[in-house]
């Protein structure tokens, strides 16, 4: 378990001030490049885990570290995450970045990859190919200082959408370390706040969290709709949209920035709105991810806005072309099935990106949804819990639901119910799974049984 203090700095000027103050204690600087991987069907992310390859481009002592991180929790500026690391040859790391299938070949020689195979793929490596895909990554300039018995790392992290400045300090006594660092920052007039999300979470969100100064008072929210689901969304969401341009705000409801290759979902006989979309000139298959949005607009409107923004840079595929690429969604191309649909493996020509049946060509993953079932999921880390607030669209209506996976469900339920009651949010116990509701063809009768 890695336990560390995480404090955010507001801007580059504050970053420069802090590094100047700590200059006498500087011991080294790391030029890092972080890249992340997941299974084609979300085998790792579905269990709150991610595989990372970190390159240290420090001349002449370059090195490469592969790391498995899982079940991260960040509360009051203290992060706790299960972490397992192992050094691999730098050139092998570069090969894996260029071709993620190369990772499957490390199962016998790399302890981390053996864990990935056994814990997330049921011990089956499919003849040396786990089907991992690269999610992309970001660069990080890390200055390391030894100060008052602490090892303090001051980071300048460069994302495609902005730059994050952050302090990290790993410690077995994080509260004491945090108190000592905060005292130093206050004495020197250095502005800061508790970090509210990990760098990986920020990368996946596609935007920097809203800056909030430490002890700046209670933040207030106003419900944007008379529906309880939107009110819960407003209460739980920490980062706001500071840039209101179309590309930055994500009003289309999807995040594209981290993807070189994207596979969307489709259903037959439904017009051009349901085509599979992929950017041109790409090399590795990646999975489309829905991003958060607090807008109460309809899902159809979000899809339309999404298509207006991205159709300039994408290649479109018809449903029939997808059938060809996946061998008519045949059993030999089937990968996995979830509550909302099935995932199939398909192939595109590496040069033309046209559908083909050659296993040696570019592999893709295609999710075929059950008829008229879409789910918009917002994920929040709150008081040590991972809370998922869903808007599920069936052919016969919409369902709004809260989900929270926990090893202590009774305690988690009590904590969530207390929060809902304090904020006047109506709720009841769910009485059927989404799949059961889908099969029944109607929404359950609403029973509000909480006073």
TrEMBL record:
Concerning SMART domains, the annotation shows: CYTH
- InterPro entries assigned to the protein according to its UniProt record, in alphabetical order: CYTH-like_dom_sf (IPR033469), CYTH_domain (IPR023577), Kinase-like_dom_sf (IPR011009)
User: Which CDD domains does this one have?
Assistant: CYTH-like_Pase
Domain of life, per the record? Eukaryota
Q: Name one GO molecular function term.
A: pyrophosphatase activity
Q: Ranges for the CYTH domain?
A: 1-207
- Which Pfam family name is an example for this entry? CYTH
Q: Which SUPFAM superfamilies match?
A: CYTH-like phosphatases, Protein kinase-like (PK-like)
- Tell me which PANTHER family the record gives: OS08G0299200 PROTEIN, TRIPHOSPHATE TUNNEL METALLOENZYME 3
The name of this protein is CYTH domain-containing protein
The protein's organism comes out as Helianthus annuus
């Amino acid at each position: 378990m890695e336990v560390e203090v995480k404090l955010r700095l507001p801007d580059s000027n504050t970053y420069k001030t802090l590094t100047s103050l700590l200059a006498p204690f500087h011991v080294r600087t790391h030029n890092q490049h972080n890249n992340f991987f997941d299974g084609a069907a979300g085998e790792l992310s579905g269990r709150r885990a991610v595989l990372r390859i970190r390159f240290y481009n420090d001349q002449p002592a370059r090195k490469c570290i592969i790391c498995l991180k899982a079940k991260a929790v960040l509360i009051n500026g203290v992060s706790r995450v299960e972490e397992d690391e192992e050094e691999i040859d730098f050139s092998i790391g570069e090969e894996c970045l260029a071709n993620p299938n190369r990772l499957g070949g490390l199962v016998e020689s790399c302890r981390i990859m053996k864990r990935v195979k056994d814990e997330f793929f049921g011990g089956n490596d499919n003849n040396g190919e786990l089907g991992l895909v690269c999610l992309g990554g970001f660069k990080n300039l890390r200055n390391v200082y030894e100060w008052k018995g602490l090892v303090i790392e001051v980071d300048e992290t460069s994302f495609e959408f902005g730059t994050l400045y952050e302090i990290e300090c790993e410690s077995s006594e994080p509260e004491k370390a945090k108190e000592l660092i905060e005292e130093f920052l206050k004495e020197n007039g250095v502005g800061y706040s508790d970090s509210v999300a990990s760098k990986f979470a920020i990368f996946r969100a596609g935007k920097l969290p809203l800056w909030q100064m430490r002890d700046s008072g209670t933040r207030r929210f106003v419900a944007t709709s008379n529906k309880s689901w939107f009110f819960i969304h407003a209460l739980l969401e920490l980062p706001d949209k500071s840039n209101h341009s179309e590309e930055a705000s994500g009003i289309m409801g999807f995040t594209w920035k981290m993807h070189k290759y994207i596979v969307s979902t489709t259903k037959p006989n439904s017009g051009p709105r349901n085509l599979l979309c992929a950017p041109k000139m790409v090399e590795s298959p990646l999975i489309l991810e829905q991003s958060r949005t607090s807008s109460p607009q309809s899902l159809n409107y979000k899809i339309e806005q999404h298509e207006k923004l991205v159709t300039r840079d994408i290649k479109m595929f018809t449903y029939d072309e997808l059938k060809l690429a996946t061998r008519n969604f045949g059993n030999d191309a089937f990968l996995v099935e979830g509550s909302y649909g099935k995932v199939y493996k398909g192939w595109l020509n590496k040069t033309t990106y046209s559908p083909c049946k050659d296993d040696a060509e570019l592999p893709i993953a295609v999710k075929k949804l059950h008829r008229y079932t879409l789910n918009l999921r917002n994920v929040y880390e709150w008081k040590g819990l991972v809370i998922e607030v869903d808007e599920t669209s069936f052919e016969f209506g919409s369902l709004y639901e809260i989900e929270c996976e926990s090893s202590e469900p009774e305690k988690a339920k009590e904590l969530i119910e207390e929060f809902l009651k304090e904020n006047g949010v109506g709720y009841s116990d769910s009485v059927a799974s989404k799949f059961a509701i889908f099969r029944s063809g109607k929404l359950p009768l609403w029973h509000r049984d909480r006073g």
